[in-house]
Specification:
Length: 353
């Protein structure tokens, strides 16, 4: 198979004109990098292939014949503004396909429009409004959180064995966006990843020893395109900063006062080495666990707690956090207590707020 290559000018690895550069990304893909969006016209040199020097070569753009026609093994195409495309070469206007290249345009500015910038579902925060407080419903304020900066990519891991997932959300106006290339590395070593079928997430497996302290961060990079526009997003993190424990196991209640639970099924053993802290909250009946009218809030490293409140109807909520890194909290689990009955269950995603 013929491989596309760029005409290399001035002996460099890319062609550059003032602040504009043309760089290969992967086979059959080149990126025209411009400093900002505006009226730009840049010439991009292309070669069909070394094997076609003595043959008549005709070019098409996105499968359509060009007007006026472009002929020859070596050509120069004019790319205007954000109008890239797929340029293919053939033996005749309707003849055998020989080769192709796709030209994407990438702005060097920090403007990002393809993926949404969002805050994580559950971020790192500490409860600061009261410690072991029992207060009137309206007087115990909501959680004061040390803000987690929003981002385009969010990653999490259920434990330290190596699997982690990263996800992103397309902007409403860019539903057609697709992943062109993604890569995860640690200290220059590739981490295998598999893209989800929907193209909005990836599952990776880091094979570093879970008992060793991390010396190097993981660097995750994704190249996403919408039509001819290309954007690159990166995220650097340590696994310890994204580990988020799963839902707690065996949450139960004894005499409507003593609640007990177990470590998440997905959490590593021994618990003495992989310790957890547990945050519990008591909120009013029919209120979500993150309600700003909490009756009682505190943390513990024990797996049981006795509730002593005057309210007869309430919700007991509990979730886990790595004891040593104080990373992201896991999902809430809860018990609903009423005069008639009491029941414990993990919360659905809509109830975890």
């Amino acid at each position: 198979m013929n491989f596309l290559f760029l005409v290399v000018l001035f002996g460099g690895v890319c062609y550059a004109s003032s602040d504009v550069s043309i760089e290969p990304l992967v086979d059959h893909v080149v990126v025209l990098k411009v400093p900002h969006r505006g009226r730009t016209e840049e010439e991009v040199p292309l070669v069909c292939g070394r094997d076609n020097l003595t043959q008549d070569v005709f070019w098409k753009k996105d499968g359509m014949e060009l007007n006026p026609p472009l002929k020859g093994n070596r050509i120069t195409v004019l790319v205007e503004e954000m109008e890239g495309g797929n340029y293919s070469c053939h033996l005749s206007p309707g003849g055998q396909y020989l080769n192709h290249t796709i030209i994407f345009i990438q702005l060097d500015s920090e403007e990002r429009v393809i993926l949404k910038e969002k805050s994580p579902e559950e971020g790192r925060f500490r409860e600061t409004e009261c410690v072991m407080c029992v207060c009137v419903f309206e007087s115990c304020g909501g959680s004061k959180r040390s803000s987690v900066p929003p981002g385009h990519i969010h990653c999490s891991a259920p434990n330290y064995t190596g699997p982690f997932r990263c996800s992103w959300t397309r902007a409403d106006s860019r539903s057609n966006a697709a992943v062109l290339l993604l890569q995860a590395t640690r200290n220059g070593q590739q981490i295998p990843c598999e893209l989800d079928a929907g193209g909005s997430g990836v599952l990776c497996q880091d094979n570093s020893c879970s008992y060793k302290e991390e010396q190097h961060h993981i660097l995750f990079t994704i190249h996403v395109h919408s039509y001819s526009r290309l954007e690159t997003y990166t995220k650097a993190f340590y696994l310890k900063d994204i580990v988020r424990p799963g839902a707690l196991s065996n949450l139960q209640m004894d005499n409507a006062k003593v609640f007990s639970w177990s470590y998440p099924d997905s959490w590593e053993k021994p618990c003495s080495f992989y310790g957890l802290n547990f945050q519990y909250r008591v909120v009013r009946h029919n209120h979500p666990c993150d309600s700003n009218t909490a009756i009682l809030v505190n943390t513990t490293d024990d797996t049981k707690f006795e509730v002593n409140v005057k309210a007869k109807k309430y919700v007991f909520c509990v979730r886990a956090q790595d004891k040593y890194t104080q990373g992201p909290f896991g999902p809430w689990s809860s018990c609903v207590v009423t005069k008639e009955e009491a029941g414990c269950q993990p919360l659905s995603p809509g109830q975890r707020k």
